[in-house]
Amino acid sequence: MKAEYINPFIASVNNIFPQLGFEKISKKNVSIKKNNVERSGILMMLGIVGDIEGNIAYYLNFDDAKKIAGQMMMQEDLDELNSMAKSALSELSNMLTANASINLSQNDIDVDITAPSTLFGESFILDMNTNSFISIEMNVDDMVIDINIAIK
């Protein structure tokens, strides 16, 4: 997968999270993963269509999801991911992907994004639209957000 497809998503994390009050942001790891990855936590998935097509899935474990949603909602401690917290995380995935699509357009790659689908639970399987996908682990104030990118 071309770096010109991946870098806009890294840049979107570096751009959006500071606007939400997060300070320490770094790229932790980049790897290629196969489908059928088992996860527990929350996953926000969006589609991209246009000059390139595929899926973007943002993954957070439950504790990190509560911390990020709490920060977005200006609440210190969330005991659970209630409907408002899930909505905040869904909006975060919209913000990140919209910003990445703006970054892509600066490279003459035009895309539209779909509305996010949010999944949460214990032990679900991540199955993207390709046999393998790029997984980028970003560290945000000592929390990890996985950006999973599958572009055809």
UniProtKB/TrEMBL annotation:
Entry keyword annotation includes Oxidoreductase: no
TM annotation in the entry: none
Chain segments annotated as coiled-coil in the UniProt record: none
All residue ranges annotated as the Chemotaxis phosphatase CheX-like domain in the record: 44-132
Pfam families: CheX (PF13690)
CDD domains given in the database record: CheX
GO biological process: chemotaxis
Residues annotated as signal peptide: none
Assigned keywords, A-Z: Chemotaxis
Source organism superkingdom: Bacteria
Descriptive protein name: CheC domain protein
Naturally occurring in which organism (per UniProt): Halanaerobium praevalens (strain ATCC 33744 / DSM 2228 / GSL)
